[in-house]
What we know:
Blueprint: E1 2-7, H1 14-27, E2 32-36, E3 43-44, H2 54-68, E4 72-76, E5 92-99, H3 102-111, H4 116-130, E6 136-138, H5 144-155, E7 178-184, H6 190-203, E8 208-212, E9 219-220, H7 226-242, E10 247-251, H8 257-266, E11 271-278, H9 281-292, H10 309-329, E12 333-336, H11 342-350
Parallel strand pairs: 1-4, 1-5, 2-4, 5-6, 7-10, 7-11, 8-10, 11-12
Antiparallel strand pairs: 2-9, 3-8
Helix pairs in contact: 1-5, 2-7, 3-4, 6-11, 7-8, 9-10
Amino acid sequence: xxxxxxxxxxxxxxxxxxxxxxxxxxxxxxxxxxxxxxxxxxxxxxxxxxxxxxxxxxxxxxxxxxxxxxxxxxxxxxxxxxxxxxxxxxxxxxxxxxxxxxxxxxxxxxxxxxxxxxxxxxxxxxxxxxxxxxxxxxxxxxxxxxxxxxxxxxxxxxxxxxxxxxxxxxxxxxxxxxxxxxxxxxxxxxxxxxxxxxxxxxxxxxxxxxxxxxxxxxxxxxxxxxxxxxxxxxxxxxxxxxxxxxxxxxxxxxxxxxxxxxxxxxxxxxxxxxxxxxxxxxxxxxxxxxxxxxxxxxxxxxxxxxxxxxxxxxxxxxxxxxxxxxxxxxxxxxxxxxxxxxxxxxxxxxx
Length: 351
């Protein structure tokens, strides 16, 4: 399996470029997966032996890459400046570092609302990385499409041969623990509410982790189903549990009891509590339109961002039908997510 990892300091455009490259390859018929490594280390407080969670992310990445079963995988995210790039068994790994001039890097981070001390830390990190070798693409003044074109030129990607599938490390023993799964129709607020719940658990003094199921199954042209996501979720929870996590908050769709059973089979010793958020058609339409304008929960690969209004209306109609179907089967514990704020819905989830 061939893996291309776009790395570099925050603000250079790693995730945006990696997602466009992934999209291009899928549209051209190349079986490809996508992983944002930041999504594989959301477990706090971090263990003392792995304060930046680089080891945690590396272990999870190896499992996710193997489970995706794609000839090519595009990865975005930072690497350990001390230990370097982790080994991913059974893969041919190509690293490509993205950079940007100091002025543009600072401007990008300021637009994100980063405080001055964090921006200075990133500047210092970028300076250190600029002194290293390897394949590098300067993103200064370039469009995302231009960045991706240069990445492909300098790395030779995609490798037409691909590689054999890496071996999946067989787990030893089942992992216990508490898993709170927030499901519901598209646009109901699963991610925003789930993250608010996660933050409350952390503030209560518990070690906890957060996983968005959509981030565990990016693969095309043949989509990854719930089986792939369930195996990846089990792998991540094993890592987080070993790091001391007591509870896991999961957000993502669950269309039926059969889907829930797929995850329960992958996590036989864990206690899974399913909480279904519900909102009416008007509220779903409103939230989906906001996501289309980039005003919703930020996530890599958001399929609604920047889409035409007509398309968003179709998505909202399907979401309303999905919500009605979930109501009919009474899946999980129902929480009304229509009228309240994110914090109010989080209150109801934890009540």
